[in-house]
Write a structure and sequence with these properties.
Binds to the 23S rRNA. One of its GO terms (cellular component) is ribonucleoprotein complex. It comes from Methylocystis heyeri. This protein is of the alpha+beta class and 188 residues long. It folds into 2 domains: 63 residues, Ribosomal Protein L9, domain 1, CATH 3.40.5; 84 residues, Ribosomal Protein L9, domain 2 (Roll), CATH 3.10.430. The chain is built from 5 helices and 8 strands, in the order ββαβαββαβββαα. Strands 2-1-3 form a 3-stranded antiparallel β-sheet, sandwiched between helices. It has a 3-stranded mixed β-sheet with strand order 4-8-7, sandwiched between helices. The N and C termini lie far apart (81 Å). About 5% of the residues have low confidence.
């Protein structure tokens, strides 16, 4: 199906481009989210008559997104979760959790604006991209910790996961051999 893009779509084209996409992608994503129009003659004429207005609206939205991006860039949001001693979370931190933390921090973000390839499943500081506008992206830091105190230590750069020393097999073998030699069972 051919569609006319109403805004910039990554890996597809700029506003006003007529592109050919699969029918399902057009119906379920582009048309449903009002990112495109079907490329009929009537819609082409309508788009050309409204082009200046659409571009002006897009420019206004872009400027608003850039203003928010300046304040949001590099902000750190704390998410408290339960985790094991190794630092692996019992659950995970998803886009909804990050959006709620940002809202609590004074920024209004929708979970669809947060870009996570995989949910966060470990304690620590995580850089997360936020898609404010098709042309404006920023990165925020999500501090996943067990408590507020632990979050403060992580922010300072301290490790919060207890490092356990594991004995190597050689060390273990020497300890067993020494114990047997003391008992008089084996000569060293």
């Amino acid at each position: 199906m051919e569609v006319i893009l109403l805004e910039r779509v990554a890996k597809l084209g700029q506003m006003g481009d007529t592109v050919r996409v699969r029918d399902g992608y057009a119906r379920n994503f582009l048309l449903a989210r009002k990112k495109a129009l079907r490329a009929t003659e009537a819609n082409k004429k309508h788009f050309e008559s409204q082009r200046a207005q659409i571009e002006a609206n897009n420019l206004t939205l872009k400027k608003e997104a850039e203003a928010i991006a300046e304040k949001l860039e590099g902000q750190t949001f704390i998410v408290i979760r339960q985790a094991g001693e190794s630092g692996h979370l019992y659950g995970s931190v998803a886009t909804r959790d990050i959006a709620e933390a940002a809202t609590a921090g004074g920024f209004t973000l929708d979970r669809n604006q947060i870009v996570l390839v995989h949910p966060i499943k470990a304690l620590g500081l995580h850089n997360v991209p936020v898609h404010l506008h098709p042309e404006v992206d920023v990165k925020i830091v999500v501090n996943v910790a067990r408590s507020e105190e632990e979050a403060e230590r992580q922010a300072r750069g301290e490790s919060t996961v207890e490092a356990r020393e594991h004995a190597s097999m050689d060390d273990l073998g020497l300890e067993v051999g020494a114990a047997l030699a003391e008992a008089g069972d084996v000569e060293l």
